[in-house]
Specification:
The complex is a heterodimer. Chain A is α/β, with parallel strands linked by helices. Chain A has 2 domains: 102 residues, Oxidized Rhodanese, domain 1 (3-Layer(aba) Sandwich); 276 residues, Ribonuclease Z/Hydroxyacylglutathione hydrolase-like (Metallo-beta-lactamase, Chain A), CATH 3.60.15. Chain A is 30% helix and 22% strand. Chain A has 15 helices and 20 strands. The radius of gyration of chain A is 22 Å and the shape is globular. Chain B has one domain: Translation Initiation Factor IF3 (2-Layer Sandwich). Helix content of chain B is 29%, strand content 33%. Chain B is globular and about 30 Å long. Classes of the chains: A alpha/beta, B alpha+beta. The interface between A and B is medium-sized, with 19 and 16 residues.
């Protein structure tokens, strides 16, 4: 007797990074599949056959599923994956499993990875969100945890903080996010943590926060590493980067390893492009080129290093994006942005309202708004042109 | 709201996928050519799923309307 097993998003991420040999069968409809798919650091053997195709001409579709390796089935919630799994088992498939909770659990998954050496007296973690191609960060020192750009996976942060015997004391926002729902409000409400953000993005927020200002520094604990504030407007007027311990440069969506943040998401393209030009030319390029850039997003897993971390020296990032950083006049820069503009997802307007605290959505609605890869880079293949 | 006269009705309120599509298929298998089904679903995934499935069967979606959490489909059997 064969039973259908279940697996979690966390299991799936391990299988993907371990290069396990399996078939990923996505049974969602073609439209949802084309909008958002599972991606890992290495090539995935994946096939999309909607569950309702197994209703008509069952056998024809079953023959499209390999019997040579384990089959992992994914759908929106989990019911359809289980349904298809039962059909496969009834047809003699031996190793069949379905994603418990459906693809939204993949969308919310965070995977922690330590960035700095274990010999340091503080710990800096990159929390990679594979379903969104985004990164947020956790800084831990002597019983305190600080989160940069938390997503709304509150349970993850809570258990991470607990397992490291720390308390979440502050969250720093790099900007008012448009592509995902921020977790800061919930962390502040439940843990009493202080939200730190720039007034240019958060002046209309309905919740309490403390203003960060360019040039200020925040110590962590009594004698921990310093967090320096660098106002880096462009992607948004309030975009702010944070430099930790003079080594780690958390850039939010100001700059990525292979692109820069889009200044065209709100319709004020010219104004925000000029801000970004000034930030990149007069601020970023004057910083220590040895800083480790820690971006808010990646475009592709190719950007990860051999430890599967998204981190790169500032000097290298400027080299990778020479096409952008070498532009000498604001006019040419604005033209460059306009040449690379594309439509911004309609849902971003709604997500901004949620993140300012002016729109409340229930869990289901939040899951739908929050699903899908980000669209924050000015263009994805800058390096090839540079 | 009844935009069309219909012959059968199926209420899938509260059901998640795959049930709305499975039940729709079952009821439509027993309908005559040209008859119209009014189907109500509250699963947000139904919108793309039902549209995609109907497209494959040759049946025709006459309208899709959203009323609060309810999605109301009128589907004509081919």
């Amino acid at each position: 007797m064969t039973f259908i097993k279940s697996f979690t998003s966390k299991n799936l991420f391990s299988s993907l990074t371990n290069k396990d040999d399996f078939l990923l069968l996505d049974v969602r409809n073609k439209k949802d599949f084309s909008r958002f798919q599972i991606e890992g650091p290495f090539e995935v053997d994946m096939v999309n056959i909607p569950y309702f195709d197994f209703l008509e001409g069952e056998d024809g579709n079953i023959s499209k599923v390999s019997r040579q390796k384990p089959v992992k089935i994914v759908c929106a919630k989990e019911g359809s994956a289980l349904y298809v799994g039962e059909i496969l088992v009834a047809h003699g498939f031996e190793d069949v499993a379905y994603l418990a909770g459906g693809i939204k659990t993949w969308g919310n998954l965070l995977t922690p990875k330590r960035i700095n050496p274990k010999s340091d007296d503080y710990a800096l973690f990159q929390f990679i969100r594979p379903g969104k191609a985004s990164c947020n960060y956790g800084l831990l020192y002597k019983g305190e945890m600080i989160i940069f750009d938390p997503s709304r996976n509150y349970e993850f942060y809570k258990s991470f903080a607990e397992s490291h015997r720390t308390k979440i004391v502050r969250t720093f926002e790099t900007h008012l996010q448009a592509d995902y729902i921020s977790g800061s409000k919930q962390i502040a409400n439940v843990n009493g943590a202080e939200i730190m953000a720039h007034v240019s993005d958060f002046k209309d927020a309905s919740f309490q926060y403390s203003e960060v200002k360019d040039g200020e520094s925040y110590p962590v604990g009594d004698d921990g590493p310093e967090i320096k504030v660098l106002h880096s407007p462009g992607h948004t007027p309030g975009s702010t980067s944070y430099i930790i311990d003079d080594k780690y440069f958390i850039t939010g969506d100001t700059m990525f390893i292979f692109s820069v943040g889009r200044p065209d998401l709100s319709g004020k393209t010219e104004e925000w492009s000029l801000m970004l030009f000034d930030t990149l030319t007069n601020k970023v390029q004057n910083l220590d080129k040895n800083l480790d850039v820690l971006p808010g997003h990646y475009m592709d897993w190719n950007e990860a290093n051999d430890k599967l971390l998204f981190v790169e020296k500032l000097g290298e990032v400027i080299q990778h994006n020479a096409g952008v950083y070498k532009i000498t006049t604001p006019e040419k820069f604005t033209q460059y942005i306009k040449d690379n503009m594309r439509k911004s997802p309609e849902v971003y307007r709604e997500i901004r309202k949620v993140n300012s605290g002016w729109l409340d959505v229930d869990m289901d609605e939040a899951d739908i708004m929050d699903l899908g890869k980000n669209e924050c880079a000015a263009e994805a293949y800058n390096a090839e042109k540079g | 709201m009844n935009k069309f006269d219909f012959n059968k009705e199926l209420d899938c309120t509260g059901l998640n996928c795959p049930l709305p599509v499975l039940k729709t298929k079952k009821i439509m298998d027993n309908m005559a050519k040209g008859e119209i089904l009014r189907m109500i679903s509250t699963d947000p995934g139904s919108k793309n799923d039902v549209t995609s499935w109907v497209g494959r069967t040759g049946n025709e979606i006459l309208s899709i309307e959203e009323l609060g959490k309810k999605i109301i489909f009128f589907i004509r059997k081919a």
